[in-house]
Structure formats: C-alpha cells, structure tokens
Amino acid sequence: MEARAVSKYIRVSPQKARLVVDLIRGKRVDDARTILKLNNKAASRTISKVLESAVANADNTKKLEVDKLFIKRAFVDQGPTLKRMRARAMGRANVIRKRTSHITIVVEEE
Question: For the domain bounded by 2-6+14-75+102-109, which CATH number is listed?
Fold first, then answer.
C-alpha cells in the first residue's frame, strides 16, 4: 500500500525543486527528514512539509507503520507561470517569468 501527498502552485521554480527532490528519492523517511533539515536550499522547507503530509496520510488513512516507510516516488511538475513586465530603456519591456511547481511525494511500506 502507498500513500501520497501533492502540493500545487508552489512559488519555487521546478528546476530548483528537482535538485532537492533528487536527494531524497528512494530513501527511508527518517533519512529524508534529516537530509531536508540539513539542506540549504529554499525548496527543502516546502518539500519537507509535503513529506510530512504524505507520512500523515500513510499513518491516518492507510494505517501503515511510519517506521517502515520509504519514498517510493517523488517528482516535481511545472505549474502555471506568472508573467510580469519590467520596464527597460527607451520604452521597451522585458518579461519576468515567475515559475510555479506541483510537488508530489509517494511513500510506501517496506
């Protein structure tokens, strides 16, 4: 049995979030918590919250043992991009793309 958690429309670029998710994929939940706590990236706090949500879903709805959980799948999809304009010289403008992410973590019992 597996439990999952999805967090959508997170204001971090998918490229930066994937760097953190790649570190914890396939690890035990305790090891992943330690890695996320010690990681210096901004996305690690959000991914930590999604991981805790997946563990809570496994514990409460699926009745799985928390000590035996590992991360089966973890991936980051691109969400919608917020487009903003920045004024430039001579009446021109540049587009600033503020990217969003959908983070999914699936945990399973060993």
Answer: 3.90.470.10
Q: Which residues contact 103 (CB under 8 A, 6 or more apart)?
A: 6, 7, 10, 17, 21, 46, 47, 50, 75, 76
**63 phi-psi bin (left φ>0, alpha ψ -120 to 50, beta other):** left
- Three-state DSSP state, 77: strand
The rounded distance, in Å, linking the Cα atoms of 10 and 46 is 8
d(CA 62, CA 79): 28
Q: What is the mean pLDDT of each run of 10 residues along the chain (110 residues)?
A: 95 96 95 96 95 94 90 96 97 97 95
Q: Which residue has the tokens 């971090």?
A: 12
Domain limits of the chain? 2-6+14-75+102-109
Quote the tokens at residue 87: 């004024």
Residue found under tokens 């089966």: 72
